[in-house]
Amino acid sequence: MTDCIFCKIVQGEIPADVVYEDEHCLAFRDIQPKAPIHLLVIPRKHVVNLDDLKDSDRDLISHMMLTIPRIARQQGLTEGYRTVTNNGKGGGQEVFHLHFHILGGGKLHAL
Ligand code: 5GP
Ligand code: ZN
Questions:
Q1: What is the pLDDT of residue 2?
Q2: Where are the domains of the chain?
Q3: Would 52 disulfide with which of 2, 48, 98, 105, CB 3.0-4.6 Å?
Q4: The domain 5-104: what is its CATH number?
């Protein structure tokens, strides 16, 4: 996707504070953090959101789910953290490349 900000971060065309990367995904700091630690975990592959996942993405999404706790641990979030994924405009999604927010490092509001 040529006009996707997160694809541009994957390609290194836009700078980001990357804290983790592997062959399937990467994590970087949110540019407008809503918690002391606010990361975004994205697949390298362009997927719009959870609605866009195919059966063939089973291994990818499984890998991401297993990697999120590792990233959180690496970032020192030993007391816990929140994951959020906004899906579609009605869900508050602003960047249409799948991402999991990891929020922590302070008291979070109850949902
Ligand atoms: P959404 O509302 O789509 O779930 O969240 C998109 C998130 O991406 C927002 O928290 C926003 O601050 C973050 N964001 C948008 N553009 C950039 C960018 O260019 N770099 C980084 N690091 N974060 C971004
Ligand atoms: Zn993209």
A1: 77
A2: 5-104
A3: 48
A4: 3.30.428.10
